[in-house]
C-alpha cells in the first residue's frame, strides 16, 4: 500500500490483522499518531511507515514486536524520546531508520542490544548528549548514520568494535576532542564523515579511511592539522607541553568573549531605542488625576463580556483581555486586567502593580487608565499570533526600550520580575508594550537593594517557570540582571518558535542550550519556519544571523 495518496490516520483496528507479517504504508499522506495497537501485531517482520505526516511519540508497545527485522519510521514528524523498548528489539537485523523526525533526548544505551543490525539511521533529529559506549556492541553494523543532531563529547572507544562498518557519518554535531587513532582500525570503511564538529589536533595517518582523502570528510573542523597531504591541512606544531598551556589561555578568553558578546547584544538593543527612532516620551505625571470614569458595564461591552476570543494572557492572579472603549465616536484599544481576588496574593499583586505604574509613562509600557471592581471572572486560554521576522525584530526592540526605561530612567529603578511573551501586548501598529507589573520591585539607586513596600515584598519572587532567572529560585536578591535574562529567553522563543517549557526540553537540554548548540552553523535549522512566510531572501537570513 506504499506510494499512494492515502490520508487520515492509521486505524486502531489494524490490530485485528493478527497474522500480518509485513506492513508497508510508506509514502502516503497519513497523519495523526502511530496507534499503540500496532504492538499487538507480534508476527510482524517488516513495518514501514516512512514518508508520511505522522506525529507524536513512538508507542513503546512496538517493542512487543519481537520478530521485527526492519523498522522504518523516517521522514515523519515524530517527536519525544526514542523508547528503549523499541531501539532494543534484538531481532532487528536489516534496518532501523528513525531519521528526519524531531526526536529529542539521548540515544538510549539499549542500542547495544542490536547485535545483528546492519543499518542504523537516526540522522536529522534533535538528539543530544554523549554517544553511548554500548554502540560498540552493534558488531554487525555496516552503516551508522548519526549526522545532524546535537551529540557532544568525544567518540567512544567502543566504536572500535564495529569491525565491519563501511559507512560512519557523525557530521554536523557538537562532537569534540582529538580524532581517535583507533578509527584507523576500521579497515572496511569507505565513507567516514566527521565534518562540521569541533574536533581538534592531528588527523591520524596510519590506515583505514585516513589513507584515502576521498573516503574521509573533515570540513568545518578548523582546529585540525596534519593528516595525509591530499587533505591539505596545516602542519601540526610541536606539542612539547604547549597544547595544555594554550588551552588554559584559550578557554578563559573564549568564555570572556561569549560573555562580552552577550552584553554587547543587550546594550545594542537598548541603544537602538534612542538611535533607531526619535521617540518622544510622555512627561511624568501621577495617574490619580487622569483616571477615566469607566463602569463595569462599559468594560463588559468593550470586551464582548470578557469573551475567550479577546483573551490575550493569563497569569497567577488573573487574566488580561483586549477591549475597545467607545467614547464620542472614538475607539480606544485597551487591555483589561481581571484579578481573581479569591486567589491568595492577588490583592497585593494589584497594589504592587499600581505602585509600580503610578509615576511612570513610556510608549512601550502599558498605561493605567482606570480601575473598577466586580465579582465576575472568566478563566480561558491564550491564542498566539504568528509574526514575521521584521515584526519580531521591531517588538524585541520595543521591549528592550521599555526595560531600558524601567532600569535606567525612572526616578527609582524598577525590576519587572515577570517578563515573558504574554506580558508584551501589541497595539494596532504592532508596537510592543510591556504589561503586568504585579511582581515588580523597586531598587535603591545607590545600593541596588530591593526597597519595595510591604505590599509588594510579601508576594515573594515567583515569576514564570522557564523565564525567571535561575538565581531567583535559589533565593537571590532581585536585580536588573534577572530582567535581562528573561529578555534573552523571550528573544530565543520569538526567533526559535519554541517555549522554554516545551516537552522536548528535559534533562540537560533547555531552550538556551538548544539554540547554543545550533549556533552559528545550524541556526537556520532551528528558527521558526513562520519567520519567512511570504518569501525569504538573503538579506533577511543575514539579519537573523546577525540578531
TrEMBL record:
Its main location: membrane. It is found in: Cell membrane. GO terms for molecular function: ATP binding; protein serine/threonine kinase activity. InterPro entries: Kinase-like_dom_sf (IPR011009), Leu-rich_rpt (IPR001611), LRR_dom_sf (IPR032675), Plant_receptor-like_S/T_kinase (IPR051809), Prot_kinase_dom (IPR000719), Protein_kinase_ATP_BS (IPR017441), Ser-Thr/Tyr_kinase_cat_dom (IPR001245), Ser/Thr_kinase_AS (IPR008271). Pfam families: LRR_1, LRR_8, PK_Tyr_Ser-Thr. Residues 306-547 form the Protein kinase domain. The chain crosses the membrane at residues 249-272. SUPFAM superfamilies: L domain-like, Protein kinase-like (PK-like). It is a single-pass membrane protein. It comes from the Eukaryota. It is an enzyme of class 2 (transferase). Its EC number is 2.7.11.1. It catalyses: L-threonyl-[protein] + ATP = O-phospho-L-threonyl-[protein] + ADP + H(+); L-seryl-[protein] + ATP = O-phospho-L-seryl-[protein] + ADP + H(+). ATP binds at residue 337. GO terms for cellular component: plasma membrane. Keywords: ATP-binding, Cell membrane, Glycoprotein, Kinase, Leucine-rich repeat, Membrane, Nucleotide-binding, Phosphoprotein, Receptor, Repeat, Serine/threonine-protein kinase, Signal, Transferase, Transmembrane, Transmembrane helix. Belongs to the RLP family. PANTHER family: OS02G0215500 PROTEIN (PTHR27008:SF596), OS04G0122200 PROTEIN (PTHR27008). This is non-specific serine/threonine protein kinase.
Amino acid at each position: 500500500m506504499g506510494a499512494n495518496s492515502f490520508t487520515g490516520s492509521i486505524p486502531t483496528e489494524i490490530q485485528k490483522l493478527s497474522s500480518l507479517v509485513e506492513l508497508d504504508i510508506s509514502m502516503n499522506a497519513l497523519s495523526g499518531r502511530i496507534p499503540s495497537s500496532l504492538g499487538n501485531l507480534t508476527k510482524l517482520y517488516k513495518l514501514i511507515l516512512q514518508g508520511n505526516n505522522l506525529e507524536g511519540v513512538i508507542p513503546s508497545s512496538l517493542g512487543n514486536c519481537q520478530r521485527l527485522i526492519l523498522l522504518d519510521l523516517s521522514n515523519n514528524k515524530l517527536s519525544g524520546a526514542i523508547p528503549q523498548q523499541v531501539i532494543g528489539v534484538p531481532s532487528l537485523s536489516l534496518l532501523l531508520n528513525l531519521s528526519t523526525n524531531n526526536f529529542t533526548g539521548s540515544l538510549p544505551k539499549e542500542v547495544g542490544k542490536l547485535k545483528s543490525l546492519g543499518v542504523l539511521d537516526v540522522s536529522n533529529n534533535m538528539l543530544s548528549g554523549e554517544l553511548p559506549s554500548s554502540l560498540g556492541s552493534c558488531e554487525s553494523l555496516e552503516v551508522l548514520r548519526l549526522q545532524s543532531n546535537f551529540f557532544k563529547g568525544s567518540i567512544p572507544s567502543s566504536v572500535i568494535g564495529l569491525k565491519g562498518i563501511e559507512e560512519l557519518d557523525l557530521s554536523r554535531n557538537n562532537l569534540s576532542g582529538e580524532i581517535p587513532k583507533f578509527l584507523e582500525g576500521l579497515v572496511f570503511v569507505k565513507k567516514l564523515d566527521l565534518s562540521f564538529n569541533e574536533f581538534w589536533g592531528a588527523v591520524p595517518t596510519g590506515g583505514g579511511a585516513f589513507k584515502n582523502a576521498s573516503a574521509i570528510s573533515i570540513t568545518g573542523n578548523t582546529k585540525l592539522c596534519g593528516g595525509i597531504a591530499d587533505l591539505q591541512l596545516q602542519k601540526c606544531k610541536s606539542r612539547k607541553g604547549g597544547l595544555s598551556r594554550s588551552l588554559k589561555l584559550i578557554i578563559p578568553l573564549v568564555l570572556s568573549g561569549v560573555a562580552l558578546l552577550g552584553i554587547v547584544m543587550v546594550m545594542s538593543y537598548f541603544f537602538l531605542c534612542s538611535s533607531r527612532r526619535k521617540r518622544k516620551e510622555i512627561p511624568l505625571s501621577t495617574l490619580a488625576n487622569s483616571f477615566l470614569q469607566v463602569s463595569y458595564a462599559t468594560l463588559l461591552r468593550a470586551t464582548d463580556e470578557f469573551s475567550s476570543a479577546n483573551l490575550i494572557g493569563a497569569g497567577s492572579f488573573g487574566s488580561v483581555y483586549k477591549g475597545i472603549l467607545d467614547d464620542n465616536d472614538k475607539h480606544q484599544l485597551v487591555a483589561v486586567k481581571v484579578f481573581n481576588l479569591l486567589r491568595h496574593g492577588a490583592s497585593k499583586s494589584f497594589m504592587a502593580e499600581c505602585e509600580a505604574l503610578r509615576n511612570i509613562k513610556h510608549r512601550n509600557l502599558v498605561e493605567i487608565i482606570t480601575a473598577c471592581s466586580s465579582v465576575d471572572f472568566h478563566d480561558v486560554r491564550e491564542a498566539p499570533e504568528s509574526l514575521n521576522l521584521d515584526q519580531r525584530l521591531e517588538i524585541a526592540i520595543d521591549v528592550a526600550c521599555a526595560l531600558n526605561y524601567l532600569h535606567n530612567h525612572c526616578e527609582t529603578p524598577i525590576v519587572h520580575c515577570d517578563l515573558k511573551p504574554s506580558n508584551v501586548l501589541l497595539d494596532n501598529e504592532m508596537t510592543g508594550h510591556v504589561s503586568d507589573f504585579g511582581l515588580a520591585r523597586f531598587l535603591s539607586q545607590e545600593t541596588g537593594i530591593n526597597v519595595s513596600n510591604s505590599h509588594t515584598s510579601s508576594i515573594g519572587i515567583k515569576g514564570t517557570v522557564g523565564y525567571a532567572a535561575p538565581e531567583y529560585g535559589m533565593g537571590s536578591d532581585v536585580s536588573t540582571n534577572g530582567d535581562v535574562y528573561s529578555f534573552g529567553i523571550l528573544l530565543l522563543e520569538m526567533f526559535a518558535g519554541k517555549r522554554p517549557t516545551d516537552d522536548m526540553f528535559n534533562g540537560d537540554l533547555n531552550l538556551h542550550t538548544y539554540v547554543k548548540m545550533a549556533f552559528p552553523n545550524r541556526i537556520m535549522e532551528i528558527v521558526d519556519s513562520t519567520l519567512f512566510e511570504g518569501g525569504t531572501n538573503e538579506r533577511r537570513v543575514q539579519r537573523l544571523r546577525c540578531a
